[in-house]
Protein backbone atom coordinates (compact mmCIF):
# COMPACT_ATOMS: atom_id res chain seq x y z
CA UNK A 1 0.00 0.00 0.00
CA UNK A 2 1.15 3.50 -0.75
CA UNK A 3 2.02 5.67 2.21
CA UNK A 4 3.17 9.25 2.64
CA UNK A 5 5.21 10.29 5.66
CA UNK A 6 5.87 13.79 6.92
CA UNK A 7 8.20 13.51 9.90
CA UNK A 8 8.15 17.18 10.92
CA UNK A 9 4.94 18.06 12.78
CA UNK A 10 6.02 21.69 13.06
CA UNK A 11 8.67 23.97 11.59
CA UNK A 12 9.59 27.61 12.15
CA UNK A 13 11.36 30.04 9.87
CA UNK A 14 12.34 33.68 10.09
CA UNK A 15 10.74 35.99 7.60
CA UNK A 16 12.85 36.23 4.41
CA UNK A 17 14.74 33.05 5.24
CA UNK A 18 14.54 29.66 3.56
CA UNK A 19 12.92 26.53 4.95
CA UNK A 20 12.68 22.95 3.72
CA UNK A 21 9.79 20.62 4.52
CA UNK A 22 10.41 16.89 4.23
CA UNK A 23 8.26 14.17 2.74
CA UNK A 24 8.91 10.52 1.99
CA UNK A 25 6.62 8.05 0.33
CA UNK A 26 6.42 4.37 -0.34
CA UNK A 27 5.16 2.88 -3.57
CA UNK A 28 5.85 0.11 -6.06
CA UNK A 29 4.32 2.08 -8.92
CA UNK A 30 6.41 3.81 -11.57
CA UNK A 31 3.87 6.31 -12.86
CA UNK A 32 2.65 8.72 -10.21
CA UNK A 33 2.39 12.33 -9.16
CA UNK A 34 3.45 14.15 -6.04
CA UNK A 35 2.02 17.36 -4.65
CA UNK A 36 2.41 19.90 -1.93
CA UNK A 37 -0.78 21.52 -0.69
CA UNK A 38 -1.06 24.51 1.60
CA UNK A 39 -3.91 24.70 4.11
CA UNK A 40 -4.23 28.10 5.80
CA UNK A 41 -6.54 28.65 8.77
CA UNK A 42 -9.45 28.99 6.33
CA UNK A 43 -8.93 25.25 5.66
CA UNK A 44 -9.05 25.73 1.90
CA UNK A 45 -6.68 23.28 0.19
CA UNK A 46 -4.39 25.24 -2.12
CA UNK A 47 -2.15 23.45 -4.59
CA UNK A 48 1.39 24.78 -4.20
CA UNK A 49 3.36 22.60 -6.58
CA UNK A 50 3.10 19.36 -8.55
CA UNK A 51 5.76 16.93 -9.73
CA UNK A 52 5.31 14.18 -12.30
CA UNK A 53 7.40 11.15 -11.43
CA UNK A 54 8.57 10.66 -15.00
CA UNK A 55 10.14 14.12 -15.07
CA UNK A 56 13.69 14.32 -13.81
CA UNK A 57 13.65 18.10 -13.54
CA UNK A 58 12.52 19.44 -10.19
CA UNK A 59 9.35 21.53 -10.32
CA UNK A 60 9.49 25.21 -9.34
CA UNK A 61 6.78 27.82 -8.79
CA UNK A 62 8.17 31.23 -7.94
CA UNK A 63 9.53 30.96 -4.36
CA UNK A 64 8.57 27.28 -4.07
CA UNK A 65 10.70 24.45 -5.38
CA UNK A 66 11.01 20.74 -4.77
CA UNK A 67 13.85 18.31 -4.42
CA UNK A 68 12.54 15.10 -5.95
CA UNK A 69 14.71 12.07 -5.32
CA UNK A 70 12.88 9.19 -7.01
CA UNK A 71 15.24 6.40 -5.97
CA UNK A 72 15.12 7.54 -2.36
CA UNK A 73 11.36 8.20 -2.58
CA UNK A 74 11.85 11.64 -1.16
CA UNK A 75 10.00 14.82 -2.10
CA UNK A 76 10.94 17.90 -0.09
CA UNK A 77 9.56 21.42 -0.47
CA UNK A 78 11.83 24.46 -0.26
CA UNK A 79 10.29 27.84 0.43
CA UNK A 80 12.62 30.73 -0.28
CA UNK A 81 12.25 34.29 1.02
CA UNK A 82 9.56 33.16 3.46
CA UNK A 83 6.66 35.53 3.98
CA UNK A 84 4.16 35.85 6.81
CA UNK A 85 1.47 34.65 4.45
CA UNK A 86 3.28 31.33 4.04
CA UNK A 87 2.29 30.33 7.56
CA UNK A 88 -0.04 27.34 7.22
CA UNK A 89 -0.26 23.57 7.33
CA UNK A 90 1.53 21.94 4.43
CA UNK A 91 0.52 18.53 3.18
CA UNK A 92 2.48 16.25 0.92
CA UNK A 93 0.28 14.07 -1.29
CA UNK A 94 0.69 11.20 -3.72
CA UNK A 95 -1.47 10.15 -6.65
CA UNK A 96 -1.03 7.06 -8.82
CA UNK A 97 -1.82 7.47 -12.48
CA UNK A 98 -4.90 5.45 -13.37
CA UNK A 99 -6.39 5.76 -9.89
CA UNK A 100 -8.29 8.55 -8.28
CA UNK A 101 -7.24 8.65 -4.65
CA UNK A 102 -4.94 11.23 -3.25
CA UNK A 103 -2.94 9.88 -0.32
CA UNK A 104 -1.98 12.62 2.08
CA UNK A 105 0.67 12.85 4.76
CA UNK A 106 -0.19 14.08 8.24
CA UNK A 107 1.06 17.58 7.56
CA UNK A 108 3.70 20.03 8.78
CA UNK A 109 2.66 23.23 10.50
CA UNK A 110 4.86 26.08 9.29
CA UNK A 111 5.27 29.16 11.47
CA UNK A 112 6.85 32.28 10.03
CA UNK A 113 8.48 34.58 12.57
CA UNK A 114 8.57 38.32 11.96
CA UNK B 1 -15.71 30.36 -13.29
CA UNK B 2 -16.86 29.27 -9.85
CA UNK B 3 -14.84 26.67 -8.04
CA UNK B 4 -16.10 23.70 -6.09
CA UNK B 5 -18.77 24.85 -3.68
CA UNK B 6 -19.66 23.24 -0.40
CA UNK B 7 -22.38 24.09 2.03
CA UNK B 8 -22.78 24.63 4.78
CA UNK B 9 -19.28 25.73 5.74
CA UNK B 10 -19.98 24.98 9.36
CA UNK B 11 -22.50 22.52 10.71
CA UNK B 12 -23.29 21.79 14.34
CA UNK B 13 -25.29 18.71 15.26
CA UNK B 14 -26.17 16.97 18.49
CA UNK B 15 -25.46 13.30 18.93
CA UNK B 16 -28.06 11.17 17.17
CA UNK B 17 -29.03 13.81 14.61
CA UNK B 18 -28.44 13.61 10.87
CA UNK B 19 -25.88 15.67 8.96
CA UNK B 20 -26.21 16.47 5.26
CA UNK B 21 -23.24 17.97 3.49
CA UNK B 22 -23.58 19.32 -0.04
CA UNK B 23 -21.05 19.67 -2.82
CA UNK B 24 -21.49 21.36 -6.18
CA UNK B 25 -18.61 20.46 -8.51
CA UNK B 26 -16.95 22.85 -10.87
CA UNK B 27 -18.78 23.47 -14.12
CA UNK B 28 -18.06 20.69 -16.58
CA UNK B 29 -16.87 18.27 -13.89
CA UNK B 30 -18.74 15.00 -13.58
CA UNK B 31 -16.54 13.24 -11.03
CA UNK B 32 -16.82 13.96 -7.33
CA UNK B 33 -14.69 12.75 -4.44
CA UNK B 34 -15.22 13.12 -0.70
CA UNK B 35 -12.39 13.23 1.83
CA UNK B 36 -12.44 13.51 5.60
CA UNK B 37 -9.89 15.35 7.71
CA UNK B 38 -9.86 14.43 11.38
CA UNK B 39 -8.17 16.89 13.77
CA UNK B 40 -4.40 17.03 13.32
CA UNK B 41 -4.49 14.60 10.40
CA UNK B 42 -4.30 14.68 6.62
CA UNK B 43 -7.23 14.18 4.31
CA UNK B 44 -8.41 10.60 3.83
CA UNK B 45 -10.38 9.35 0.85
CA UNK B 46 -13.97 8.33 1.53
CA UNK B 47 -15.88 7.88 -1.72
CA UNK B 48 -15.75 8.53 -5.45
CA UNK B 49 -18.91 9.19 -7.43
CA UNK B 50 -19.98 9.93 -10.93
CA UNK B 51 -23.46 11.06 -11.86
CA UNK B 52 -25.90 8.48 -10.47
CA UNK B 53 -23.08 6.02 -9.74
CA UNK B 54 -20.91 5.18 -6.77
CA UNK B 55 -17.57 4.10 -8.20
CA UNK B 56 -15.62 3.42 -5.02
CA UNK B 57 -16.81 3.75 -1.43
CA UNK B 58 -13.97 1.81 0.13
CA UNK B 59 -13.11 4.67 2.47
CA UNK B 60 -16.59 5.09 3.87
CA UNK B 61 -17.44 3.77 7.32
CA UNK B 62 -19.67 0.74 6.95
CA UNK B 63 -22.58 2.17 8.87
CA UNK B 64 -24.36 5.51 9.06
CA UNK B 65 -22.53 7.09 6.10
CA UNK B 66 -23.89 7.32 2.58
CA UNK B 67 -23.23 9.43 -0.49
CA UNK B 68 -25.03 10.21 -3.70
CA UNK B 69 -24.53 12.30 -6.81
CA UNK B 70 -27.88 12.57 -8.58
CA UNK B 71 -28.42 13.40 -12.20
CA UNK B 72 -29.51 16.87 -11.17
CA UNK B 73 -28.23 18.80 -8.19
CA UNK B 74 -25.29 18.59 -5.86
CA UNK B 75 -23.56 15.58 -4.41
CA UNK B 76 -24.71 14.79 -0.86
CA UNK B 77 -22.75 13.16 1.93
CA UNK B 78 -25.16 11.99 4.58
CA UNK B 79 -24.26 10.96 8.10
CA UNK B 80 -27.03 9.43 10.17
CA UNK B 81 -27.09 9.34 13.97
CA UNK B 82 -23.91 11.36 14.30
CA UNK B 83 -21.46 10.66 17.12
CA UNK B 84 -18.70 12.86 18.51
CA UNK B 85 -16.09 10.94 16.51
CA UNK B 86 -17.70 12.22 13.31
CA UNK B 87 -16.50 15.73 14.14
CA UNK B 88 -14.12 16.60 11.31
CA UNK B 89 -13.69 18.67 8.19
CA UNK B 90 -15.24 17.08 5.12
CA UNK B 91 -13.82 18.08 1.77
CA UNK B 92 -15.28 17.57 -1.64
CA UNK B 93 -13.18 17.58 -4.80
CA UNK B 94 -14.16 17.38 -8.45
CA UNK B 95 -12.42 16.52 -11.69
CA UNK B 96 -13.40 16.65 -15.35
CA UNK B 97 -12.11 13.51 -16.96
CA UNK B 98 -12.07 9.77 -16.94
CA UNK B 99 -10.67 7.98 -13.95
CA UNK B 100 -8.32 6.15 -16.28
CA UNK B 101 -6.01 9.07 -16.75
CA UNK B 102 -4.55 11.60 -14.40
CA UNK B 103 -6.66 14.63 -13.85
CA UNK B 104 -6.28 17.13 -11.10
CA UNK B 105 -8.88 17.21 -8.40
CA UNK B 106 -10.02 20.66 -7.36
CA UNK B 107 -10.94 20.96 -3.72
CA UNK B 108 -13.81 22.83 -2.18
CA UNK B 109 -13.46 24.88 1.02
CA UNK B 110 -14.73 22.04 3.20
CA UNK B 111 -17.53 21.68 5.72
CA UNK B 112 -16.57 21.69 9.37
CA UNK B 113 -18.87 19.33 11.26
CA UNK B 114 -19.04 19.64 15.02
CA UNK B 115 -21.00 17.08 17.00
CA UNK B 116 -22.00 18.17 20.48
Key attributes of the depicted protein:
heterodimer, A: 114 residues, mainly beta, six-stranded mixed beta sheet, four-stranded antiparallel beta sheet, 12 strands, B: 116 residues, seven-stranded mixed beta sheet, globular
Backbone shape of chain B: globular
- Main sheet of chain B, how many strands, which sense, barrel? 7 strands, mixed
> Distance between termini of chain B?
36 Å
Give the termini distance of chain A in whole angstroms: 41 Å
Number of helices of chain B: 0
Report the strand count of chain B: 11
The proportion of strand residues of chain B reads over 45%
Classify the secondary structure makeup of chain A into a structural class.
mainly beta
Order of helices and strands of chain A, N to C?
A: EEEEEEEEEEEE
Mean of the pLDDT scores of chain A?
A: 93
Average pLDDT figure of chain B: 91
Radius of gyration of chain B: 13 Å
Order of helices and strands of chain B: EEEEEEEEEEE
Uncertain stretches of 5 or more adjacent residues of chain A: none
Q: Percent range for helical residues of chain B?
A: under 10%
- Which secondary-structure class do the elements of chain B indicate? mainly beta
Largest interface: chains, residues each: A-B, 22 and 27 residues
Shape of chain A: globular
Kindly state the number of beta strands of chain A: 12
